[in-house]
Amino acid sequence: MSAPTCRPTHVALPIVVMGVCGAGKSVIGAQLADVLGLPFLDGDDLHPAANVAKMSRGLSLTDEDRKPWLTAVGSWLTDHRSPGAVTACSALKRSYRDQLRAACPDIVFIHLAGDQHIVIDRVASRPDHFMPPSLVASQYQTLEPLQDDETGITLNFDQPVDDLVHAARQWLGTATAA
Asked: Whole-prediction pTM value?
């Protein structure tokens, strides 16, 4: 776990669990949403069919490919601003996060980061998903970590799910005393 960049000012926020494919965004995001009592969306569900087809063929998406998808994710978060919501969205580049922030300025990010070899194994073990292991390297090449002026925290995804959710809740300021 790394130190947070900026802390959120309140808990009921739009939350993006971000990172490369196979980092655990959907699992952590869904469980975090459940414990916070907030709606959850797997951002992959909003990819246009052309994006899914392209990735299924082992081709990386371009910034232009991602724009309509990020617009849809940003719109969903804006629609669920009150009382807040959680989405899993790669948000790999600062410019992608900026696009999400333009739609929903009070957004916060929980970046799940870690070893590329772990991700390759995880992605290879989910044959029913459209993202092939061959695209993992390009995701790591595209990834721009959170910057100091972005409200977010980076957590190492090579920890138990409950520990990651607890760390996220603590950072968000909602963890209950054990």
From this structure: 0.86
